[in-house]
Design brief:
This protein is α+β, with helices and mostly antiparallel strands and 409 residues long. The chain is built from 21 helices and 11 strands. The strands form 3 sheets. It has a 7-stranded mixed β-sheet with strand order 3-4-5-2-1-8-9. A two-stranded antiparallel sheet has the order 6-7. The longest helix has 19 residues. It is elongated. Bound molecules: adenosine-5'-triphosphate and magnesium ion (MG).
Length: 409
C-alpha cells in the first residue's frame, strides 16, 4: 500500500528524511502519526525513525537537542518546526515488568518495529509513501482490532504499561481487543501495580478522554486492571456507572478527573488523597476539589452570583459543560453573560481595601478585618450592597456593631 498524499505535517519533516537517506541511512515516519493518518484522524506529533545512530544524526543537522539521547532520540530543529528523530532500537533487558533498563541501537527497521506495542502502532512509511507493514497492522486497522505485536503475554510481561495503553487505544479508537491480547491482559493485570504512577497517569488521563470512553471503561473493569490502579480497587461499580454516561469525548484533564470523582462519590478530602496517590499536580487537585462540589450544586440548582464568583469564569464554564454527561444542555453563553455582569470579579475590585477598613474603625488589628471584607464582598456580589465606599463603610459599621464578638476572640 502507498499513501496517496502526504499530510502537511509529514511534508514539513520530508527534508529531514531526505537528508538522512542521501547520507546513506534509512528513515521512516513511524508510530502514532502513521496510524492516525491511515485512520483519517488529525495527527499531533510526527515521529521519525532512522538507522543512523544518534551521533550520526547530530553530525548531519546543524541544530539539534539531546532530548532522550540514551534512548536514541535527538530533536532536530528546522525553521518551521521541531522533530524527534529516533534511532532504530531494540529493548533487551526488562526488569520488574517496567521499561527496559537498556536499549540497543540497531540498523534494522524490522527489529525496531518488532519492539513496538501493537500492530497498528508498528507501521512505517517511507518517503515515497510506501507503507511498511510487517505485522499485518493494516488488516487490523481495517478490522478495528487492537493486537499486540508478537506474543501478548511476553509483551505485557516485558512492560506492563502496555496493558493500560491497550485500554486507552480502545477508548480512543473504539477498536476491540483481539482475544489473545485481552486474555493476556486479564492474566497479567496485577503487573500494573509495578508500573510507576507517573507513567500510568499519562495513559489513564488519555484513556478517560477518549471518544469511546464507555467501551474503554468497560474493558478496564472487565479486565480488572482498575484494581491495580491507585485507589480504584473498590470502585468497579462506580466505574461502570461512569461508563453509562453519554456525551462527547471529555475535552480537558480537569473535567475528566471531575467527572470521575463525581461518579466515585468521594468527599473532598478523599478526592485530595486519591489525586495525590495518582501524583496529580497541586494545581489540578485544587481545580478538581473546587469543580466537584460546584458540579454537585449545579446538578441541583441554577448558578447564583456567589457560586459563580467563587469558582471563576473558566472553571464555571468547565463545570457547566459537564452537564452534557447528565443528559442536560449546558448553557455556556449564559454563564459568560452572568459572569460579565457580576458587580465585582475579585476582592481587588471592592471599593474599600483592608487598610481603609482598619483605619476607619481604629480597632486593634485582628481577624475582624478579613471577616468584614468577606461580608462586604459577598453582599456586593449578591447585589444587596452597592460597591461604593461610603455605603460599604456604613454597612461595615452596622456589621461590626452586631458582631462585637469578633473583637473578643
Ligand atoms: P499518541 O497519538 O497518543 O501520541 P502514540 O501511539 O504515538 O499515540 P506514543 O506514546 O507517542 O504513542 O508512542 C509512539 C510510538 O512508540 C507508539 O506508536 C509505539 O509504536 C511505540 N511505543 C510507545 N510506548 C510503547 C511501549 N510502552 N511499548 C512498546 N512500544 C511503545
Ligand atoms: Mg505519539
Amino acid at each position: 500500500m502507498k499513501l496517496e498524499a502526504f499530510p502537511l505535517e509529514f511534508q514539513g519533516a520530508m527534508p529531514i528524511l531526505r537528508k538522512l537517506q542521501s547520507a546513506g541511512y534509512e528513515a521512516y515516519y513511524v508510530g502514532g502519526s502513521v496510524r492516525d493518518i491511515l485512520l483519517n484522524k488529525p495527527i499531533h506529533d510526527v515521529d521519525i525513525a532512522t538507522s543512523a545512530f544518534p551521533a550520526e544524526v547530530k553530525e548531519l543537522f546543524h541544530r539539534t537537542i539531546d532530548v532522550g539521547i540514551d534512548h536514541g532520540t535527538v530533536m532536530v530543529i528546522t525553521k518551521e518546526a521541531t522533530y524527534e528523530v529516533t534511532t532504530f532500537r531494540t529493548e533487551s533487558t526488562y526488569q520488574d515488568y517496567r521499561r527496559p533498563d537498556h536499549v540497543e541501537f540497531v540498523r534494522s527497521l524490522k527489529e525496531d518495529l518488532k519492539r513496538r506495542d501493537f500492530t497498528i502502532n508498528a507501521l512505517a512509511v517511507g518517503i515515497d509513501g510506501t507503507v511498511i507493514d510487517l505485522f499485518d497492522g493494516l488488516e487490523d486497522l481495517r478490522n478495528k482490532v487492537l493486537r499486540a505485536v508478537g506474543n501478548p503475554y511476553e509483551r505485557f510481561h516485558e512492560d506492563a504499561l502496555r496493558m493500560m495503553r491497550a485500554l486507552r487505544f480502545v477508548s480512543h479508537l473504539g477498536f476491540t481487543l483481539e482475544p489473545n491480547t485481552f486474555e493476556a491482559i486479564q492474566e497479567y493485570h496485577s503487573l500494573l501495580a509495578k508500573i510507576s504512577v507517573e507513567r500510568i497517569n499519562v495513559e489513564f488521563v488519555k484513556f478517560m478522554m477518549g471518544s469511546f470512553r464507555s467501551a474503554g471503561l468497560r474493558s478496564f473493569v472487565e479486565s480488572e486492571c482498575y484494581i491495580y490502579c491507585p485507589g480504584l480497587r473498590n470502585y468497579g461499580e462506580a466505574l461502570l456507572n461512569f461508563a453509562e454516561l453519554h456525551g462527547p469525548a471529555i475535552p480537558t484533564e480537569r473535567q475528566a478527573w471531575t467527572l470521575l470523582m463525581t461518579m466515585l462519590e468521594l468527599t473532598i478530602s478523599d478526592i485530595r488523597n486519591l489525586m495525590k496517590e495518582w501524583k496529580c499536580s497541586n494545581q489540578l487537585i485544587k481545580e478538581v476539589t473546587q469543580m466537584v462540589p460546584a458540579l454537585r450544586f449545579r446538578l441541583k440548582a441554577e448558578w447564583d452570583n456567589w457560586s459563580l464568583y467563587q469558582l471563576g469564569r473558566e472553571l464555571a464554564l468547565s463545570v457547566e459543560y459537564l452537564l452534557y454527561y447528565f443528559d442536560r444542555e449546558p448553557n455556556l453563553a449564559k454563564i459568560r453573560l452572568l459572569y460579565q455582569y457580576l458587580p465585582i470579579h475579585s476582592l481587588k475590585e471592592l471599593a474599600v481595601k483592608g487598610n481603609e477598613v482598619m483605619e476607619h474603625f481604629t480597632y486593634r488589628r485582628g481577624p475582624w478585618i478579613s471577616e468584614t471584607l468577606h461580608t462586604l464582598e459577598q453582599e456586593v456580589v449578591e447585589g444587596r450592597l452597592k460597591n461604593e465606599k461610603a455605603e460599604l463603610l456604613a454597612f461595615a459599621d452596622q456589621f461590626l456593631k452586631a458582631n462585637s464578638s469578633l473583637f473578643n476572640s
